[in-house]
Amino acid sequence: MQYLSTQSDARAVSLATALQKGLAPDGGLYVPQTLPTLNHWPAPAASLPTVATHALRPFVGENDPLAPVLPALCEATYGFPVPLTDVGRRTAVLELYHGPTAAFKDVGARFLADSLSRLNASADQPLTILVATSGDTGAAVAAAFHRKPNVEVVVLYPKGRVSARQEKQLTGWDANVQTVAVRGVFDDCQRLVKAAFQSERWNGRLRLSSANSINIGRLLPQMTYYVAAGLRYRARHGVAPNVIVPSGNLGNGLAALYARALGAPLQRIVLATNANRAVVHALEHGAYTAFDTVETLATAMDVGDPSNMERLLHHWPPPDALRQAVEAVRVPDDALREHMRRGPDAWDTVWDPHTAAAVAARERLDPDDNHPWMLVATAHPAKFPDVVEPLVGATVPVPEALAEVMARSHAVPTIDPTLDALWDVVVSE
Ligand SMILES: *Cc1c(COP(=O)(O)O)cnc(C)c1O
To answer: Ligand 1 centroid to 14 CA: how many Å?
Structure first.
């Protein structure tokens, strides 16, 4: 399997190369040259690493440096369970929030971290990953790379502009992970990262790389929990489920589409967005338009111009292929609030603001329970106590893994938003 850019017919590259480069040289996103299909599947009771290895094998070329280590990579990715819990009314919840930072981004970040660590084993200098974060991505990346050999991570976050709980998740690291608070906004952090990548001084001293959500090395491993969950749902209920994915940048939704294209037992795929309208608009009008981002309660889905739209349009061109592949439901804040409030009574579950979008879409599409559904729970509600707790009238206990990270929280340097200030704390020390 080779990987192409969505932007042009630039030379195809191996998975290992696509993963190390992140973005194609022409600015496009890497996509698999073809979408492979599988006819044989592991038993539904097989372990997640076993299913993941099987599902990813056709995406890794025979001569790819990652081919021989694929089983080990899948073991390193899944050090935690991914339960599929029946909650009544022909509906099951795929709980993707049992990793170290209690959100689905742990899966992709851990696969990418282990891959980059292994690919750099024989390099004479570690790879330095620069990440700008507005909250959750930085924590998942930091947790995934922490204490991995041959890689170092610098996480930049805007001081005073992430929640107290997010800040604790960003500052609970040591060893090869350094966190820096920046006096500014998220865009300042992103500008610093871009400036470092373009700087001769930085490139002369460090080997820089990134771990963006658009990296194909984060997207492909996310496919594997859809394969495993589809097999388990069908074994349990005798039918393939429809899937609803809370969506922002569309990485997770695209992973579901790749899984179904591979042949995994999944029927309709529904993207549940918050008030941001780009996806629903593209399906309604059969052509894509970007919008300004709207702020909502489901902050990790606040995206007006989803970067993975480019991959979606590449594989399933609008209007017809796109409309046949996927549906979308837009859920404004008042509906998110209502479904969080009703969660404990209606489903015996406390939903986080993102998963609430999937629940709202489920109610809208099938109030009479005519179809089987799998709702994707992308985060644990304890990550968003300020939103969730007043609505359900109870405190939400913090999962153990997340509590451990937050307990290690310590003071980190705060800098002005300049490249010189960043150099002083990252390189000169
Ligand atoms: C990132 C994130 C999403 C959106 O996922 P995409 O892959 O960007 O569509 C949804 N929910 C949570 C909790 C997230 O962190």
So the answer is: 27
Going from the Cα of 124 to the center of ligand 1, the distance in angstroms, rounded, reads 35
For ligand 1, mutation pick of 301, 308, 340, 375 (most atoms within 8 Å of CB): 301
CA of 66 to the centre of ligand 1 (A): 26
Distances (CA, A) of 27 to 5, 7, 23, 24, 30: 8, 7, 6, 5, 9
- How many Å lie between the centroid of ligand 1 and the Cα of residue 296? 13
Lowest mean pLDDT among 160-174, 232-246, 305-319, 324-338: 160-174
Please give the angle made by the CA atoms of 329, 51 and 83, to the nearest 5 degrees. Answer: 55
Instruction: Kindly state if the Cβ of 246 falls inside 6 Å of ligand 1.
Output: yes
| Cα gap 412→429, rounded to integer Å | 14
Average pLDDT of 247-273? 97
Q: Which domains does the chain have, with CATH numbers?
A: 71-104+217-397 (3.40.50.1100)
**Tokens 């040289």 label which residue?**
25
By the 10 Å C-beta count (0-12 exposed, 13-18 middle, 19+ buried), 11 is classed as exposed
| pLDDT tens string 201-234 | 999 999 999 888 889 999 999 999 999 999 999 9
* C-beta of residue 227 within 8 angstroms of C-beta of residue 240: no
Closest ligand 1 atom to Cα of 352: 13
Sign of CA dihedral 22, 25, 30, 32: negative
83: Cβ–Cβ under 8 A, 6 or more apart, which residues? Answer: 94, 95, 98
Q: pLDDT at residue 429 above 70?
A: no
- The response to whether residue 300 sits with its C-beta less than 6 Å from ligand 1 reads yes
Q: Six-digit token pair at 9?
A: 């017919």
How far, in Å, CA of 306 to CA of 290, rounded?
8
How wide is the angle at C-alpha 39 spanned by C-alphas 37 and 45, nearest 5°? 110
